[in-house]
Amino acid sequence: MDAIRPAPVLVLNPDELGPDPVPGMDLAVKLGIGHLEIRSAEGTNVVMLPADWLRCLRALADERGLTVAALASPLWKWCRPQARPGRVDTFGFPTQVPPEDRLGWIEQAIEAARILGAPIVRVFSHLRVEPELTEQLLDDLLLAKALDRANTAGVRLLLENEPVCTVAHAEPLLKVLDRYHRQGLGLWLDVANLHEVGQATGDTIRALAPYVGYVHVKDYRPADDGGRAFCPAGEGVVPYGQVLPLLHAARTALPYALETHVRDTPADALTAGAAFLRSAVPGGVA
């Protein structure tokens, strides 16, 4: 008899529906999604939430039979206080963080993951600011220290490819991942971000796939003003039809986390996105 292959799963972030986590959790139950990504609650970034709030979030999830798959932290989406970042969405977390404060935030994020039962914590790669003030992740001694802390706590750090940060293209991603993978660092792959930098190609996906531990799924169409108009997954320009089969072939049990950024009708967008993923990932998604 063939061994049963683990199945991919869907993940929903409750704050896509607003600051109150309950409607998002209830939508997850309605859609048959058993896993949550926690980024913020009641308008407060997850790494800034006090322990009693985190325990309350965990209880709300437990009551509904939901588990927290990942903590979407803002770690490393920062710069030195003297730098001047552009407009950056960090969900209430400061972008200008003194180096001496950073380890404390890392430890707080790992503790938040422990309380929530999240096995994964997202990290970024320093904001791109003035060239002389831009920090690099590749030789950041704090990253090695954070990986040690995470390993001790039984938590894995995953690096998101974020265009406003220093590591967004395939070549630097592969350099960082190759350097730190043996210490536990993996890839929190945002397919739309990869498409934004022109690299959501088959060759790039195949190269990155061995490192992928988590997938962010959002979609958009070009807007008249030259920007992006977000839409439900599968209805925009991100080439999921090519990417998803390649990811599934390489890693059969990935979590696929729905984002929308669709402000007017987020519940409808999440519902449509869940239906799309269940049909687009080979073999379906639990």
Written description of the protein model:
The protein is α/β, with parallel strands linked by helices and 286 residues long. It has one domain (9-215): Divalent-metal-dependent TIM barrel enzymes (TIM Barrel), CATH 3.20.20. The chain has helices at residues 21-30, 51-63, 99-116, 141-153, 170-180, 191-196, 202-208, 240-250, 266-280; strands at residues 9-12, 35-38, 40-41, 44-45, 67-71, 120-123, 156-160, 186-190, 212-217, 219-222, 228-231, 255-258. Strands 5-2-1-12-9-8-7-6 form an 8-stranded parallel beta sheet. Helix 3 runs parallel beside helix 4. The longest helix is centred in the middle third of the chain and has 18 residues, at 99-116. The model has no long low-confidence stretch (mean pLDDT 96).
How would you summarize this macromolecular structure in one to three sentences?
This protein is of the alpha/beta class. It contains 9 helices and 12 strands. It has a single domain (9-215), classed as Divalent-metal-dependent TIM barrel enzymes (TIM Barrel), CATH 3.20.20.
List the helices and strands and how they pair.
Layout: E1 9-12, H1 21-30, E2 35-38, E3 40-41, E4 44-45, H2 51-63, E5 67-71, H3 99-116, E6 120-123, H4 141-153, E7 156-160, H5 170-180, E8 186-190, H6 191-196, H7 202-208, E9 212-217, E10 219-222, E11 228-231, H8 240-250, E12 255-258, H9 266-280
Parallel strand pairs: 1-2, 1-12, 2-5, 6-7, 7-8, 8-9, 9-12
Antiparallel strand pairs: 3-4, 10-11
Helix pairs in contact: 3-4
